[in-house]
Amino acid sequence: MGWLRHLRWKLFVSHLLIIVIGVIVLLATAHFLAGTQLTQEGQLSLGESAAETGKVTAASQPASPISQQERFQTVVDQGLLVAAFAALAAAVVVSLFVSRRIVEPLQELSFTSQRLARGYYHERTSIRSDDELADLSQSINQLAEALEQTEQRRLALLADVAHELRTPLTTIEGYMEGLIDGVIAPEERIFTMIQHEAVRLKWLIEELALLSRAEAGQLRVMPRPMRLATTAGQVAAQFEPQFNAKQVRLVNTIASDLPTIVADPDRLEQIMINLLSNALRYTPAGGVVTLFAQAHDFFVQIGVRDTGIGIAAEHLPHIFERFYRVDKSRARQSGGTGIGLTIARHLVYAQGGEIWVESEGLGHGSTFYITLPVHDTVAIAA
Ligand code: ADP
């Protein structure tokens, strides 16, 4: 009876039921009336004739077919009338039943979707049927679930952003109050600290703007055939002074004979800057950061390996989530926002690549990998 799960079959069966009831009642009534009225009258008419004359008279013969026809007509009319009433009664009962099974769930679904539209994302439907309405109810529940999760993420993001903005502002406010009250001496060191916090605030806002554009899919990424070694060389040269200042050695081993990749040079530069600044930030003096790349059949794998603080296994799956920082106070001191890797992941995905991290654990350094498609593969595929 699986086919009865479908609404169209339920409606068809209900219509069929009304027809069947009508036909059965019609047959039964016709049978009954024919059995009582037609044969009774016929016998009576013959009995009367025989008693009076002993034979069927010629005068009575023309009257008999007319009355017989009239009686037949009456039987048909009455039969149809009774059957029509029976079918009507059946239609009322069946449609009441069917409409309760269809209209009530529809009203509930409509009520739930209106509540969802008004922002009550915890609302769910509970329709106990086995047809398309149950499927629709399940879809609405899934939609509600997705909306609720999005809302929770939005609230978490708002809370995170508020927290991130409050921290540097509180520091600036504290210094300014101290300066105004004369508790803190107006020294260059203090102004440098205030400036540092202001720069951090600006950087955070720029990162947030970038993240929101990346999450909305509005970051313009224009991949084209390009040489990885050129971009890697430029970024490494740009970082050289900062690495030297912190006494961390930067080694670039990316060879120029690698296959041409398909990527957006500006976006790739942005990703490498994020990875290299993290490597520098989390590698103490005396450490080494190595840039390397390896060609595969369809892609080139780029790596940034450092001998820094490393990442414990439990943090590895979360490292690309927005605002995720292993050591919040340490990252904040060093200017970390917890957004850089989230942006890097969006940018890599937008260019058809992959990004992941490997680390042997705390104190064993980390290696970040990205892959980008090779130009020839794209040409062949196209
Ligand atoms: P942040 O601006 O805080 O560095 P990211 O999104 O770039 O934000 O990184 C998220 C977190 O991942 C960092 O706070 C840090 O805990 C960890 N992390 C990133 N890169 C490294 C690295 N090279 N070595 C150790 N930990 C890292």
Name the features.
382 residues; alpha+beta; two-stranded antiparallel sheet; 7 strands; disordered C terminus; binds adenosine-5'-diphosphate
Put the structure in a nutshell.
This protein is an alpha+beta fold. The protein is built from nine helices and seven strands. Bound molecules: adenosine-5'-diphosphate (ADP).
Describe this structure in words.
The protein has 382 residues and is an alpha+beta fold. The protein has helices at 7-53, 60-117, 132-181, 188-215, 228-246, 265-281, 328-333, 340-350, 375-381; strands at 224-226, 249-252, 261-263, 288-295, 299-306, 354-359, 366-373. A 5-stranded mixed sheet has the order 2-4-5-7-6. A two-stranded antiparallel ribbon has the order 1-3. α2 packs parallel to α3 (132-181). The longest helix has 58 residues, at 60-117. It is elongated. The two termini are 50 Å apart. Mean pLDDT is 84; it is low at 44-61 and 378-382. The site of adenosine-5'-diphosphate has 22 residues, from α6 and α8.
Topology:
Blueprint: H1 7-53, H2 60-117, H3 132-181, H4 188-215, E1 224-226, H5 228-246, E2 249-252, E3 261-263, H6 265-281, E4 288-295, E5 299-306, H7 328-333, H8 340-350, E6 354-359, E7 366-373, H9 375-381
Parallel strand pairs: 2-4
Antiparallel strand pairs: 1-3, 4-5, 5-7, 6-7
| Spatial order of strands in the largest sheet | 2-4-5-7-6
Radius of gyration, Cα only, in angstroms? 43 Å
Global morphology: elongated
Count of helical stretches: 9
* End-to-end separation: 50 Å
Q: What's the rounded overall pLDDT mean?
A: 84
Overall strand count: 7
Helix content: 55-70%
List the uncertain runs.
44-61, 378-382
In terms of DSSP E residues, the strand content is 5-15%
Order of helices and strands: HHHHEHEEHEEHHEEH
| Ions, cofactors and other bound molecules | adenosine-5'-diphosphate
For the report, how would you describe the main beta sheet? 5 strands, mixed
Structural class estimated from helices and strands = alpha+beta
